[in-house]
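[audit] Reproducing an earlier prediction to check determinism. Same input, same settings, fresh worker. If the tokens differ from the archived copy the diff job will pick it up downstream; this log only records the rerun itself.
[audit] input (221 residues):
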Amino acid sequence: MIDDITFDPVKPKAETKAKVIVSIKNVGTTEASNFDITVMDGDRQVADEPGPSILADETKDVPIDWTPKTEGTHTIKVIISYQNDDLMELTTTVDVESKPSDGFGGMPMVLLLIIIIVIVVIVLLVVLMKRKKEAPAEGEAEAVEAEAEGEPQAEVAAPAVAPVTVAAEPEPTIAPAAQAAPQMITETIVCPSCKQNFSVQYDSKPVRVKCPGCGTEGVLN
């Protein structure tokens, strides 16, 4: 006799392979064999295969492959027959859940996850490489900016120049014997060309002067 009908998994999913487990008990006094097991899913035959040998008073679970086509409630009927004669049958129902998601656009979920991980890794590598390339350029720019905007360099002190005495060229006159010596004047001027400071001595203006640094000549009025 058919003792029970169970399913593996307990909650089958549409378009996913499952098993109908038929529990058969031999209530006779001799070994049972040469019988067939037929499984029907509504009007669709799922399986028709020979049953195993079962000793007297023994119970065996016979797993039969089954792939439900649609979700919803399915009526499963198991028929035990011998030489095309139906000996017994048992009917039960099972709720079939919807087909599990295959991922994005039919793509397997595992493959989709691998693709996402690869894309993330590539993006990270590109960002890191870009930062490495930008780092030296920023460092050079900062160095140039620091050099351009750095602290002003200390001015190089002009070398000390001994006072240059430029004697005025007085007009030829006959100085009286008792004439007093002219008073010399010392003045520090700035060369308009090289900006160097130097001292000039004279007793009257205008007087011609010459920069000891760059050699520029001029007249001091």
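[audit] rerun output stored. Observation attached for the diff report: The longest helix spans residues 109-149.
[audit] end
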